[in-house]
Amino acid sequence: MLKIKNVTKIYDNKKKAVDKLSLEVNKGEIFGFLGPNGAGKTTTIRMMTGILDITDGEIFIDQFNIKKDPIKAKNCFTYVPDHPEIFDSIKGIDYLNFIADMYEVSKKDRKDIIEKYTEDFEIYNDLTNPINSYSHGMKQKLLVTGALLPKPKLLILDEPLGGLDPRSARILKNVMKEHCSEGKTVFFSSHILEIVENLCDRIGIIDEGKLIACDTMENLKKKSDSTLEDIFLELTEDEKI
Amino acid sequence: MKKFKSLVLLQLKDFINNAKSGLNVKNNKLITLLQFVLIAAIFAPAVYFSVVTFDAFVQINQPELVITSMYVNSIILMFFFGLPIIVSVFFFSKNTRFLISLPIEEDKIIFAKLSTVYMFLLAISAAFVLPSIVVYAVNTSITISIILGGLIAFILAPLLPLLISSLLVLMFNKVVRKNKYKNILTMVGNLLLIVAIIVIQMIVSRNAANPVLIQKAFLNNESLIGIIGVSFPPSIWMTKMILGSIIDAFYFIGINVLFIFTLQLMAKYFFKKSLLSLNEAHNSSGKIYYSPHSKGWQLLMRHNLIIVKEPTFLLNALLTMIVPIILYIVMTFSGSLSLDILNSEQLSSFMVLIYSGILIMPVIVSNISSTTITREGKAFWQTKVLPISEKMNIKYRIVTSLIINFLGSFIVGFVGLFILDLNIKMIIIGIYFAVTTTLFLSTVDFIINIYRPLLNWSHPTAAVKNNLNVTFALGIRFAVAIIIFGLYKIKPNMFSNYDLILIIVGSIFLVLYIITRYILYNYYTEKFSKISL
After folding, report:
1. Interface size between A and B, measured as CB pairs under 8 A
2. Residues of B whose CB is below 8 A from A78
3. CA nearest to A62, candidates A105, A26, A97, A89
4. Nearest-CA residue of chain A relative to B382?
5. Strands A30-34 and A15-25
6. Scanning every residue of chain A, which has its alpha carbon at the shortest distance from the alpha carbon of B375?
7. Which residues contact B145 (CB under 8 A, 6 or more apart)?
8. What is the CA radius of gyration of chain B?
9. Is residue B24 within 8 Å of B466, Cβ to Cβ?
10. CA distance B293 to chain A (A)
11. A71: closest chain B residue by CA
12. Rounded CA separation B532/A50 (Å)
């Protein structure tokens, strides 16, 4: 579903944020992307989504090259950023209809999906309010609802659980599982190791722009025989030594 | 007191830094230079006006009236300037919630916020009241009473307009604090301010050129300044205080102390009605709908709403459309321009040029297209992840600018139909010229914005006004004008038929538009796709 081949990102011809990163995410998988602050997680995700230009390498989404075939690739995924910086003077319902129109979601589907998720996330009654009156968590829920509207083959989420209350976090986790059970894929980055450990089929760990581990939780544990936290700390520390 | 002092300092620093960031200049030396230029630009005409007014009053043997008139003028000006600042400080400030949570008395928070407004008004007092006192003292005699009284008048002058403006804002607080009216109010306030500045500027320049007018204004009891001067005792007390009257000094200081007490009494009410009310939940309004629209329509709406929902952008766009009308109204009312002059025999042969000039005015003064990408700021990523082509992404941004510019041309053109003596041929030529000029310049402006997208701005003003893109866009217009003027100088005969020359230049713009459009959609899409935060 997602193939990253030898991708490098250099900012201003100086700072190498991502260094020859390669990984593959299969259909129906929940893939957790881990790494310390400034490791290159968000940069990688931004290149995957076409927000950032790729210095070197290639990214394929459902076989479509994000650089050469951006529209077909973008039709396959939706994205929820870590900071919900959107044009927020419009109402929540305007935003959702905007996204639905962009992905050509039918009237019936958009009604069903909007009602389902906004009621689950308890923001249905706020949809007629301007987004700039929402809390951080509410904005995050709105963006997640928007990302689920086109029923994407690949759902990309950057730190999706930050700002969500425990109930909404549980709902989102269930949504991610449900999404994968329908044969679709979820790629998300997180700092919360416990969630990654319990939710993901496979985990990738990035540090200083390089992928230092990528495997199932079981296989990672076989190598170290400890918790994900220990493995994470061990791996990222080793890199620094 | 220490807490209050820190609070005031914080407010002032916040106010000054916001003003500096609005300039969008990183070089501190340049900021200092700009500040000096700005101060000189305000003080020079004010000092000149004081000198001219003084000379006029000398003729009627009442030179001290220069202080009275300048004090009254500055009170009116401070009132106009004070209103939008008070609204901004109390209803738009981002630090309000933070300040409410601090262990500080309510009235101190209000006073700290008002101190920002006071400092701004004091600058106006420095520009108008101080020069009149200095001019009077230099031309008569420099005494201790003038120095002391002058200082007191300068310091206390902002209190009355501050009080009146605050009361007025309080009276309309229910309207002001509503989110949906905030943008409209800011825009209307800014428009009124611009009109007030233009009107004052024109009156000042006209009066300065004609001192007899000032004499008439004071001798005629029905004139505005005459009425206020006579029925506004503080101005007379202040003048007499400066001349050495102890009893008038007592009255003037006393009434200002009363203003301070009134402001203090208002503080708690102000706190409740402005700061606390902001935290109240807003009721939702409108309906939930699910009707589909085309991608193009949604993109067009998005780019238009980015302008409409942000007062700074809206004001900028609106000014683009109506600046020629405002100028015409002001010039007509000030007597600088009349229908007779516009439709006179001498100007009839230039009518097609005048009308074409009016029609292209929106795109000439506008910078809409050169800041299209910049306006989106950090929300720019949103359209980049959508399944739409770069061409489509660019297209609807340009179409948004074109709609605004054409709407502006339509408004001024429509008004022009009623003012100017036009025939069908002139109208068609004018429209052709305006359409081709607008298409060409908007496309070029957009290319400028691709080169300089500037998505990280702290204040909307930095995005559309204090942005070098605007200067570059104006530079291109200037260059085009120089080329046309050069051609006129080289071959003046070629310009004898205005209809023909407008059609030729319009056609050249049309060809240039087709070329720049081709370049934009074929060579700049990649550059556009590489724009990132």
Report:
1. 104
2. 385
3. A26
4. A86
5. unpaired
6. A87
7. B241, B242, B243, B244
8. 27
9. yes
10. 6
11. B387
12. 10
CA angle B281, B282, B285 (to 5 degrees): 150
Q: What is the pTM of this model?
A: 0.73
Cα–Cα distance between B63 and B57 in angstroms, integer? Answer: 5
Measured between CA atoms, the residue of chain A closest to residue B389 is A71
From residue B285, how far is each of A18, B27, B282 by CA, in Å? 46, 46, 9
Weakly modelled stretches of chain B, pLDDT under 70 = 1, 17-31, 34-35, 38, 41-42, 91-97, 101, 172-231, 272-285, 320, 329-339, 458, 465-466
Nearest residue to B357 via CA among B447, B422, B448: B422
Calpha distance A58→B333 (Å, rounded): 66
Give the model's pLDDT for residue B224: 46
Is-contact A76 A153, C-beta < 8 A? yes
Residues B382, A87: C-beta atoms closer than 8 Å: yes
* pLDDT tens, N- to C-terminus, chain A (241 residues): 899 999 999 987 778 899 999 999 999 999 999 988 888 999 999 999 988 889 999 999 998 999 888 899 999 999 999 888 888 888 999 999 999 999 999 999 999 999 999 999 999 999 998 888 888 889 999 999 999 999 999 999 998 887 788 888 888 999 999 999 999 999 999 877 888 888 898 999 998 899 988 888 888 777 666 667 777 777 776 555 4
Distance of CA B327 to the CA centre of its chain: 14
Which residues in A lie closer than 8 A to residue B179 (C-beta atoms)?
130, 133
Q: In a 3-state reduction of DSSP, which class is residue B121?
A: helix
pLDDT for B32-44, tens place per residue?
A: 776 677 677 667 7
In angstroms and rounded to an integer, the radius of gyration of the C-alpha atoms of chain A is 18
User: Does B532 contact chain A (CB < 8 Å)?
Assistant: yes
Task: From B120, B92, B97, B121, select the one nearest B109 (Cα to Cα).
Answer: B97
Structure confidence at residue A6 (pLDDT) = 93
| CA gap A240, A173 in Å, rounded | 32
AA identity, residue B88: S
Task: Provide the ipTM.
Answer: 0.85
Phi, psi of B389 (to 5 degrees): -75, 160
Nearest Cβ partner of B305 from A89, A111, A128? A89
3-class SS letters over B205-253: HHHHHCHHHHHHHHHCCCCHHHHHHHHCHHHHHHHHHHHCCHHHHHHHH
CA distance B114 to B99: 14
pLDDT in tens, B363-389: 888 778 888 899 888 889 889 999 999
Q: Which of residues 153-192 of B touch A (CB under 8 A)?
A: 179
- pLDDT for B199 equals 64
User: And the tokens for B195?
Assistant: 């009109």
The rounded distance, in Å, linking the Cα atoms of B283 and B49 is 51
For residue B529, give how far its alpha carbon lies from the nearest alpha carbon of chain A (Å): 8
Distance CA A145, CA A138 (A): 10
| Residue A5, φ and ψ in degrees, nearest 5 | -115, 110
Q: Nearest CA to B171 among B279, B266, B259?
A: B266
At residue B313's C-alpha, the angle toward residues B311 and B317, to 5°, is 115
Q: Which of B377, B393, B400, B407 is nearest to B520 (CA)?
A: B393
List beta partners, residue A5: A58
- Chain A residues with CB inside 8 Å of B384's CB? 49-51
Q: Which of A10, A53, A102, A126 to mutate to test the interface with B (most CBs of B within 10 A)?
A: A102
Task: Quote the minimal CA–CA distance from B323 to chain A in Å.
Answer: 27
Structure token digits, residue B64: 């001290």
Nearest chain B CA: its distance from A193 CA (Å)? 28
User: Which residues on B lie below 8 Å from A103 (Cβ)?
Assistant: 387
A97 touches chain B (CB under 8 A): yes
How many C-beta neighbours within 10 Å does residue B280 have? 8
